[in-house]
Design brief:
Distance between the termini: 47 Å
Helix content: 25-40%
Strand order of the largest sheet: 3-2-1-4-5-7-6
Number of strands: 7
């Protein structure tokens, strides 16, 4: 008998995110890419909420804006042309401890330059900032891909970071492709 087909980890992440997001909430997409996660977050927090989406590539933010505009949700999202490691510099100071969810989809921009990838140093800095922004009960969703140059090193750095956190209740889901970390904040992590 064939093994049942597993749900894609992106769908699992969206299911978990939906359990913590409600209209009026604040959410962050730390890696906007082509806007799929940004759109999902915007649908969950509308009306009245706000999504902040970050990417270093103008083409990613253009694709994200177009996706949001087609769905009528562009006004719910602030796009930041900046790396995720700079999120605290770009966000209002009063968001600390108030964000419902932060999502990361690491690697490279699908359809973009595969040589331009997320890196362990910037990702770890962003994870520290994200965990400090989340409210108690908030969710940190991180998908790590290992198949590109530097991907295995980033996956190892992310695994070590999560292993060292005491304020997170973390589920880890592995697959032949990405690894998903779905972590609920139950108190401030010691290094946030």
């Amino acid at each position: 008998m064939p093994e049942p087909r597993r749900q894609p980890l992106t769908a699992l992440a969206h299911q978990r995110l939906a359990t913590v997001l409600a209209p009026g909430d604040i959410a962050i997409d730390a890696t906007a890419g082509n806007g799929h996660d940004t759109l999902f977050l915007a649908r969950q927090i509308a009306p009245g909420g706000r999504v902040h989406a970050f990417d270093i590539q103008p083409q990613a933010l253009e694709a994200t804006h177009e996706r949001l505009a087609q769905a009528g949700l562009a006004e719910r999202v602030t796009l930041h042309l900046a790396g995720h490691e700079k999120m605290r510099e770009h966000l209002p100071a009063d968001l600390a401890g108030r964000v419902a969810a932060v999502t990361f989809n690491l690697g490279y921009l699908p359809g973009g330059d595969h040589g331009l990838v997320t890196r362990p140093d910037t990702t770890l800095a962003a994870l520290v900032q994200a965990s400090a922004l989340l409210r108690p009960g908030g969710l940190l969703s991180v998908l790590v891909y290992r198949g590109h140059a530097g991907g295995r090193e980033e996956a190892e750095a992310v695994a070590n970071w999560f292993a060292g956190q005491t304020g997170l209740d973390t589920e880890v889901h592995d697959s032949p492709g990405p690894i998903a970390y779905l972590a609920r904040i139950f108190h401030r992590p010691h290094n946030a």
